[in-house]
Structures are given as structure tokens and as C-alpha cells.
Design goal:
Bound molecules: 4'-deoxy-4'-aminopyridoxal-5'-phosphate
CATH architecture of one domain: 3-Layer(aba) Sandwich
Distance between the termini: 42 Å
InterPro entries: 4pyrrol_synth_GluAld_NH2Trfase, Aminotrans_3, PyrdxlP-dep_Trfase, PyrdxlP-dep_Trfase_major, PyrdxlP-dep_Trfase_small
Strand order of the largest sheet: 4-10-9-8-7-5-6
Order of helices and strands: HEEEHHEHEHHEHEHEHHEEHHHEEHHHEH
Enzyme class: isomerase
Subunit structure: Homodimer.
Pfam family, one: Aminotran_3
Main location: cytoplasm
Largest sheet: 7 strands, mixed
CATH class of one domain: Alpha Beta
Shape: globular
């Protein structure tokens, strides 16, 4: 029956069952499936601000935020209106539009290392293109990634990836040819010695190191002070490129992403959770920056909730892309008028006050959750990367910061499912995996912080009893 037909089932459980009969696992992205927490995922009927509503009509404080894009909260009226107007002018033309240039300019004005910007539709395409570009530019085949970092689902980047693979405990994916996997070197995160040793052994064959500017797909594991800088130095010494993946962090933790926060503002772990207000790059950005990547990837916030992402970087590298250069990349719906409208409206609204508000409320939410766990005697650690944060369970995490995927996986993961469901029962929707960051929006206010604080007691009790 049609989607709004009354004969269609009206509960999440029934919809999930119907979905599973036609969609593998009932979901179009595995992270939605409640795989590690159990139960049927909530089917969402609508969302606004900091709240989502399921098909049963129940409202939740939302800490998923569409896995990142919803920086302003859901269905911001100005973003919705911009998309509505764009839709009225035509959904897609397969020809250039002024909005694409305006969005590329908006990206570059916030992240000046993005001298040229190519719009694509997903983060996966952005990182895949960045890797191809790095290989095309250097004439080398090997790519280095860090375990626990997720860069989308292209063949070469799935090895020891975070996100849904972490949730599922998967080392990689079936269907990736060994010949392709063999071109990816996986190193432990935050391990400078391993990075140096790798470059000593294979430096002349490495096209690029790709890294999440601040990893947030194995839980939030911020770079140790100087780690990104060291990646920059080591790659430059060996003629390899540095790709900073800011699909998740870009335009979310600050106007210039995690790069702006760390390379310009000097963010470090000791400032975590204090609601530091990030600055914007000035004319002196190149002198100030402690590290500058060759290529960057963006997604999520840059599309304001519509399918849009970007690969960007140094002009002479980016000009190697077709049609100016020999590295091919294309997309029927790239720079979609609907997506550029949503992205432009979102970035226009994402001013310093928005970032300050998000940082402040994220800090408060992290604090009330930490206090509740403390009160119940649940050993844990809350880790931050700007306004992104996540909770790690267990004595080991409580005693020292989690700095790698190995350490992230060593936590007491079983405490998360009851914690998650207690929050859900109390009307708070967390990302359904212990390996995911919590996403706070500018629409989260005092009411949401209080609701989360009230729910946190029960959730902490459930975690304590697990
Ligand atoms: N890179 C990072 C850091 C991500 O977090 C993600 C998605 N969570 C991706 C790449 C892939 O983006 P997409 O899901 O849009 O393909």
C-alpha cells in the first residue's frame, strides 16, 4: 500500500518486519538497525528542533542528529524554506548552477586550505575521490589509514574501520578483493612510532595518509597533542599527501571543523568539555596553523541534511580532477540544487553563536551523564572532540584516556545496551552503539538538558546492573 495508506502498519515493530521482507535487514544503512542494543529500531515520522517523533507518536530528545548533519536541529524553518524554493525551480538539471559556486566559496571561506572544492553526494564518494586523487598525484599505490577510523564504505577503506564495523565487531568486509585490501596499510591510532616505522619501510610507495581529523567512529578518540601535526610532517618528508577526513567534524565542532579548533585555536584534551568557542581563520591562517592537510573531505553538516559532501584541497592537486586533469570523478546528482540549498542555508545560519550554544549544551549533557554514572559507581570516561563526545565504560577507560581502537574495544561494551534502552524508555534517543559520538544541536536547550539529566539516573542504574 502507499506510504500513507491506513492499511500500512503503524508501529515501528510492524514496519520493521515489513521492511525486512523487502530491504536487507530492514534498513538502508546498517548503523540504524539496533544491531548491538537489540529491539526494533524506531521508525521516524517527523522531527523538529531537538526532537524526533516515531510513528507511534512518541517524542524523543534526539542525540543522533541524523548522525551529524542536524547542527541546527531538525527542520529549521529557514533551511526547509530554502529547499522548498529550490524544489520549485527544479530538482536537478545535470548542468552547473550558481548555488554550487556559492557553496564551494562558503566552504573555502571557513577552511581556506580548501582552495578548490568538488561537490559530491556522500562522504564515501568524497574520501574515495581523495584517495584516487592522491594516487593520481603521486603515482603511488599504498594508502595508510588508522584502525577505528571510518571513511565510508569504498573497498580500500573498510579495513579495521569504525562505525558499523566496530558495532558489528567486523574486521572488514567480504567482497573486497585481496589485491585492493593489500594496498591499504592499517596502523594503530595515536601511535607515532608505528607511523614513522611504516614510512621508513614503505615511504616511497605511500600515496597518502587518511585520518579523521578527530576520530569519532570508535567513540570519540581525539588526537594526542601533536599527532595530526606529526602526520603532516612525516607525509611531507616522504612526498605523500595528508587527507584530513572532516566528514563528521567539519562545520560541526566549529566553523573550520576540527582543523580550525586544533590547528588554529590550539585545542587540547585538557580543554575538553568546557565549551571553548572556536574562532574563524583570519588572513594570517597559514602562519597560525600548526598543520595544514593537502586534501580534506566534508559531508553531513555541509549538506544540511540533504545528500551532499565535498572533497577539497590545494588548487594544483584539485585541478588534477576531470575535466581539467586526468583523475576521473563524476556524479549525475553532484551539487544537487536541493542539497546545495540546504547546505547554503545551514552554513549561513551556523554562526559563532550556534557553535557556542552547541558546545555549551554538549558540555552540560556530557557532565550530567558523567555525574549520573559517577553516582551509580559505574567506572567510565567521557571523551570530547570539541562539541562531540561519547562515553567509554569500564575501569580501564576510567583510569586512562582511550587513545586507540584497541583500547576502545577493550571497554565494557555490554553496559551500553541497558543504558541505551533506559534512556530510550525515558524519551532520549542516543546513537544505538557505544562506538558512536553523541550529536548535540543548537536546538538543544535547557529543557533537553534537564530531560537528559532526569533520564540519566535510571540509565546509569541500568548500566551499573549490567
Ligand atoms: N568519513 C567519516 C569520518 C564519517 O563519519 C562518515 C560517515 N559517518 C563517512 C566518511 C562516510 O560518509 P557517508 O556515510 O556520507 O558516505
Amino acid at each position: 500500500p502507499p506510504v500513507d495508506d491506513p492499511r500500512r502498519p503503524a508501529t515501528s515493530a510492524a514496519l520493521f518486519e515489513a521492511a525486512r521482507a523487502v530491504i536487507p535487514g530492514g534498513v538502508d544503512s546498517p548503523v540504524r538497525a539496533f544491531g548491538s542494543v537489540g529491539g526494533a529500531p524506531a521508525f521516524i515520522s517527523s522531527a523538529s528542533g531537538a526532537r524526533v517523533r516515531n510513528v507511534e507518536g512518541r517524542e524523543y530528545v534526539d542525540l543522533v542528529g541524523s548522525w551529524g548533519p542536524a547542527l541546527l536541529g531538525h527542520a529549521h524553518p529557514e533551511v526547509v524554506e530554502a529547499v522548498r524554493r529550490a524544489a520549485g525551480r527544479g530538482l536537478s538539471f545535470g548542468a552547473p548552477t550558481a548555488a554550487e559556486t556559492a557553496l564551494a566559496e562558503a566552504v573555502r571561506s571557513r577552511v581556506p586550505a580548501a582552495e578548490r572544492v568538488r561537490l559530491v553526494s556522500t562522504g564515501t564518494e568524497a574520501t574515495m575521490t581523495a584517495v584516487r586523487l592522491a594516487r593520481g598525484a603521486t603515482g603511488r599505490d599504498l594508502v595508510v589509514k588508522f584502525s577505528g577510523c571510518y571513511h565510508g564504505h569504498s573497498d580500500g577503506l573498510l579495513a579495521e574501520a569504525g562505525s558499523g564495523l566496530a558495532t558489528g565487531g567486523l574486521p572488514g568486509s567480504a567482497g573486497v578483493p585481496a589485491a585492493v585490501a593489500g594496498l591499504t596499510i592499517v596502523l594503530p591510532y595515536n601511535d607515532l612510532e608505528a607511523l614513522r616505522a611504516c614510512f621508513s619501510a614503505h615511504g616511497e610507495r605511500i600515496a597518502a595518509v587518511i585520518t579523521e581529523a578527530a576520530p569519532a567512529n570508535m567513540g570519540v578518540v581525539p588526537p594526542a597533542p601533536g599527532f595530526n601535526e606529526a602526520i603532516r610532517t612525516v607525509t611531507a618528508e616522504h612526498g605523500a599527501l595528508m587527507i584530513a577526513d572532516e566528514v563528521l567534524t567539519g562545520f560541526r565542532v566549529g566553523p573550520a571543523g576540527f582543523w580550525g579548533l586544533e590547528a588554529l585555536d590550539g585545542w587540547d584534551r585538557t580543554q575538553a568539555g568546557t565549551g571553548v568557542t572556536p574562532s574563524r581563520p583570519g588572513a594570517d591562517w597559514r602562519q597560525r596553523a600548526t598543520w595544514v592537510p593537502d586534501l580534506l573531505t566534508f559531508g553531513k553538516v555541509v549538506g544540511g541534511g540533504a545528500p551532499l559532501a565535498a572533497v577539497a584541497g590545494r588548487a594544483e592537486l584539485m585541478e588534477l580532477l576531470a575535466p581539467t586533469g586526468p583523475v576521473y570523478q563524476a556524479g549525475t546528482l553532484s551539487g544537487s540544487p536541493l542539497a546545495t540549498a540546504a547546505g547554503l542555508a545551514t552554513l549561513a545560519l551556523a554562526d559563532d553563536e550556534v557553535y557556542a550554544t552547541v558546545a555549551q549544551h554538549a558540555g552540560q549533557i556530557a557532565q550530567v551523564v558523567g555525574q549520573a554514572l559517577e553516582a551509580q559507581g559505574v567506572p567510565h570516561r567521557v571523551q570530547h572532540a570539541g562539541s562531540l563526545f561519547s562515553v567509554f565504560f569500564g575501569q580501564r577507560a576510567a583510569e586512562q584516556p582511550v587513545g586507540s581502537y584497541e583500547e576502545a574495544r577493550a571497554q565494557e561494551t555490554w553496559r551500553f545496551a541497558p543504558f541505551f534502552h533506559a534512556f530510550l524508555d525515558a524519551g532520549v534517543a542516543l546513537p544505538p552503539s557505544v562506538f558512536e559520538a553523541w550529536f548535540v544541536s543548537a536546538a538543544h536547550g535547557q529543557a533537553e538538558v534537564e530531560l537528559i539529566a532526569r533520564a540519566a539516573g535510571e540509565a546509569a542504574r541500568a548500566a551499573a546492573q549490567a
